[in-house]
DNA sequence: ATCCCTCTTTGCGGCCGGTCAAAGTCGCGT
DNA sequence: ACGCGACTTTGACCGGCCGCAAAGAGGGAT
């Protein structure tokens, strides 16, 4: 199925790319519309395609050797994902599940090398994308090393609100269904502790909770918890 | 100063690269020999160069807002590092300190885009390098989320032995000076706990400690601690 | 409307591991 | 050789967070 280039031309990933090259690239792509709960790929499966999220929201999670589920990250619109080949891996390291109705573009993984080699501008952009993801990972590592649980959860909630927030009434609503368990997996704690924290914050008017819902009412107040003044 | 291409041609980073292109690349490089304690760049400083470690060993650390020192990773020979531009950052996110006498190659950061765009093969390899680093970061994140301290430290020590080990007598000696504090920073714990663990392991004949020294005597035994059989 | 499944809340006990404190030891520099 | 600074070890204490358990609450499906 052909894709209108105007849909993707303004993505940071394709910025400054030659329109003709972008056309050629898009000619090889496949588009799919997917519904909540659908799996795009599963952990350990052979990596046959790489993807771009055009619209919607995905959750990427991993299961540890002993069976614990950990949510690794959220995929936002415009993000490249599932490019296992870039990591020189034959399989997908995690499972990508659709959180809200999404539109996903994919290419055969065998195209990866040629795509990168023939589109130097895209290579630079893709590297920046991966680099930023590495940066985020390091930030989270540092948080996990040095911060107590409350601050970590506050940071995670603020990041979610920033990346996936939608203004709604007096606050910023996180725009896809997310469970306490998900937040726990992202911050290295248990759903019990997250629940307790959110309840406490709700009591202070900082957030408003609900089933798979979360709205930040007082981002500044949360930020004070995340980074206390010395 | 010119560099003999034979020194770098076999690095994975430059594999399959056109020799002429590699020559051009190396013509723009600078080589420096550095001594333990020297700083290659400091956290927050403007990123003016990117680097390749030819020989030796470096420690990259970050200081958190509240002043705690965290060792982010170890740079091994053949590793590209300090390529802040790839992360679209103007500054270095950490401080790189020389652990043992090292040989470092550097390029002006302004070359980064052209280097990547004109050396598609290098772009693919560099992306794999970054990708693998991202993979490692995710592994550590997962460990930090789900494993108790003892397992994390065991994993970290095994990784160090694998990446920077030198056979010595009955064991594998970690080939650069490393403190308990360093290991603590890599695993998100305190030097006290690391010291206690290493002492206990030494009592069981798994490792042999010493001032800034560490030798793994029984890697299998350690592996059993890192990943207990269910 | 009702059932049922999943997600959420809340209480309580226990323990891992962080914090504080102090002594011990190695090795470098002068 | 000596002294000092940096690194390490060890003990005692205690608090934050996890684990377990059980009840409560939405929301989708029939």
How would you describe this structure to a colleague?
The structure is a homodimer of 230-residue chains. Chain A is built from 7 helices and 10 strands. In chain A, strands 1, 2, 3, 4, 5 and 6 form a 6-stranded antiparallel β-sheet that branches. A 4-stranded antiparallel β-sheet of chain A has the order 7-8-10-9. The longest helix of chain A is centred in the middle third of the chain and has 27 residues, at 120-146. With 230 residues, chain A is α+β, with helices and mostly antiparallel strands. In chain A, α4 crosses α5, α4 (149-164) packs across α7 and α5 crosses α6 (191-203). The structure holds a DNA duplex (30 and 30 nucleotides).
Low-confidence stretches of chain A: none
Helix fraction of chain A? 25-40%
- Using the CA coordinates, give the radius of gyration of chain A: 19 Å
CATH class assignment of the largest domain in chain A: Mainly Beta
Straight-line distance between termini of chain A: 57 Å
CATH topology-level name of the largest domain in chain A: Jelly Rolls
Quaternary organization:
homodimer
Summed up, the domain count of chain A is 2
The SSE string of chain A, one letter per element, is HEEEEEEHHHEEHHEEH
- The portion of residues forming beta strands of chain A comes to 25-35%
Could you give the count of β-strands of chain A? 10
Largest interface by Cβ-Cβ < 8 Å: A-B, 43 and 43 residues
CATH architectural type of the largest domain in chain A: Sandwich
Mean pLDDT of chain A: 92
Q: How would you name the CATH homologous superfamily of the largest domain in chain A?
A: Jelly Rolls
